[in-house]
Amino acid sequence: MFSEVQGRFHVGTRTNFNRDFPLLDRPDPALLPGDDAAVTADVRLKARLLGLSLGHEIVLDLHCDDEGLSYFYVPAPLWPGARDLAAALGAKAVIVWGDGSDAAFEEAAVYPYLQMPADEARLADRVVATLEFRGQADVSPVFAQADAAGLYRFLVARGVIRATGDEAALPDWYGRAAQIDHVEMIRAPEAGLVFYHVEPGDRVEEGDRLATVVPMPGEPERDVDVLAPQDGLILTRRMHRQSRKGEDLLKLIGGRRATGARPGTLEE
């Protein structure tokens, strides 16, 4: 639609498809509606996806951001146990959440096991994560081969795939791990054109200029600078170069609790 691929949001409700998955109190597919249930197609699809995940120790949901580094989200009970995944993928950052994610697929896939006794849940053996493979434009044979090799290394290290003997040991991981409430969502203070002064991977200090919003070209006195609220690492930025007031522009991982941090997901 209008030269953009649709699929993230329900056209009728504008609800993010990766929200509102069923949260089961035990990993039993019988608790989910069947294919013949009188439910809408999106509810049926979510039930089918969740059902496929139940009973598996490794559940990886592959995504990409607008523009960004390679990073992933992981539930707090599974961190730092998923450090080997970060090492295998060469992730630049890991976002750890603990207060729910608005029933995103990742939360729904781990939720039943968090309700079980520890000896039955075996959380140390589990990895459930949402992987963000950089940005939408980062599509190339080089990236594809590197990311596939990373997933392969991880699965070999976990014993899912039998090693051939040529695989090197996973390296130590020295990326940035942060609680989700340490991620600043930098939003547009006004509607207008957006000129970025930073890109993903840049390290900034509090007060640094991150972007300039131009509400009215030709009237520079109306330009608004967007400043870093704290020191940190630029994780992502929006792909489009125009914005409505209040829309997300960048994610910044800081060293302290973010301004306006709230439970749940970072964005809709």
Automatic annotation (TrEMBL):
<protein>
    <submittedName>
        <fullName>Succinylglutamate desuccinylase / Aspartoacylase family protein</fullName>
    </submittedName>
</protein>
<dbReference type="InterPro" id="IPR053138">
    <property type="entry name" value="N-alpha-Ac-DABA_deacetylase"/>
</dbReference>
